[in-house]
Amino acid sequence: MARTSNSLDLQLTIKLLDKVDSIVMLCDTTPENKINYMNHAARQTLSTYRNRLNSALNGADVANAMGRSIHQFHRNPEHIRSVFAAIADKTLESHAALIPLGDVHFQTKVYPIWDSKGALQCFMACWSDATAEFELDQARRQKDFQRENLLAERVSAIAAAVEEMTASIAEVARSSREASLTSNEVSHSASLGRDIVQLVGSTMKEIAAKIRGAASIVGTLDVRSQEIGAIVSAIQGIADQTNLLALNAAIEAARAGSAGRGFGVVADEVRQLASRAREAASEIASKVDEIRDGTQSAVEAIEASRAKAEDGEDKAQQADDAIDSIAHNIELVRDMIAQIATATDEQSSAAKEITFTLNSISESPSHGHDNETFTRFRNTDNDYYSRL
Q1: Which one, out of 140, 166, 290, 377, has a CA that is 20 to 30 A from the CA of 97?
Q2: Alpha-carbon gap, residue 374 to 139, rounded angstroms
Q3: For the residues 71-75, what does the mean pLDDT come to?
Q4: Is 122 helix (H, G, I), strand (E, B) or coil?
Q5: Which residue, among 81, 110, 71, 77, has the nearest Cα to 94 in the 3D structure?
Q6: Which of 202, 209, 190, 201 is nearest to 318 (CA)?
Q7: Mind listing the pLDDT tens digit for each residue in 119-164?
Q8: How far is it, in rounded angstroms, from Cα 101 to Cα 107?
Q9: What pLDDT digit, counting tens, does each position of 244-288 carry?
């Protein structure tokens, strides 16, 4: 015991400590810092955990702790001596640490005990059994670890799904851009088609106008053919009448005898001329009939062609209207595709950001153990361990 251990103040302190429920040990101020006092709670605790503690101490027996150096239980005795020296020099008020002895854990705090003159009498170590609390914290920590692993697995699964979705969105964006380019080409082709149809429509209008003009001309020809037919009929009538007159003149010349012989020759010539005129008129009438038949056929053909041309004109106008509507719809589709491409690009960026965030969550270390769960062991000194 320290040189002041027999003082009245220390004796009174020891009597009080025997009645305290907390584990209390006193050790002297020599370099060995031998244990010279353990209260009732300390002795009972060491007795309760004797086998478990002895197993952790590799041969040391806690039943013989009294009178022995406290450093036999330390992994780094020199560090503990420096801590005690700092307390003795009053540069350190106290020292707290968690001491694991096998599966038993003690939370300790070392204080100095000074006499009335300010001299250091001994060091007092207050112990508390933290085994149950430590095991509870370990269980919570294990549960948190399992929960974090499960969360990490789920986050990884979500990240994988988002990555697949990102790839799909990127493919949709690429297809949308290609569709946009294709729609531009289709729009250009539709514009060219519209120009061609408009040109065809204009040509069909000109053809219809020309056919209508030709129909008018052919109609005029038919009228002229009818007029020619009437003139030929008149010529035939005149030729028949001339032939009859020549015949009568020949008869009269024959009656006149030699005096009318010359007149008979003339009458015969006139009759022959009339006969040839009638034959020519008949040929002209035949030709005029053929012309009228051809003209009628031409009129019918032109009328049919005019109807076809007008129908083609209407169809060309309908095609022009249809291509205008197609071009307008293609413009709308192209704008929609452009909007889809823009939206999918934005979704792809957002999905990549989500994937990055999820990967960051799954890869980041847990910070939950810095909160309330391990507040009890916040001041653990890593060098203040038993020899395990």
Answers
A1: 140
A2: 12
A3: 74
A4: strand
A5: 110
A6: 201
A7: 898 998 888 877 777 778 778 888 888 887 777 777 777 777 777 7
A8: 11
A9: 777 777 787 777 777 666 767 777 777 777 777 777 777 787 777
CA distance 54 to 102: 9
Q: CB burial class (10 A; 0-12, 13-18, 19+) of residue 304? A: exposed
pLDDT at residue 3 greater than cutoff 90: no
Burial class from Cβ neighbours inside 10 Å (0-12, 13-18, 19+) for residue 121 reads: buried
Judged by DSSP in three states, 203 sits in: helix
Q: Assign residue 257 a region (left: φ > 0; alpha: ψ between -120 and 50; beta: otherwise).
A: left
Average pLDDT, stretch 94-107? 80
Burial class of residue 234 in the structure, from the number of CB atoms within 10 Å of its CB (0-12 exposed, 13-18 middle, 19+ buried): exposed
Instruction: Retrieve residue 206's tokens.
Output: 């000109």
**Global pTM value:** 0.40
Cα three-residue angle 72-73-75, rounded to 5 degrees: 95
Sign of CA dihedral 68, 73, 78, 83: negative
Phi, psi of 307 (to 5 degrees): -65, -40
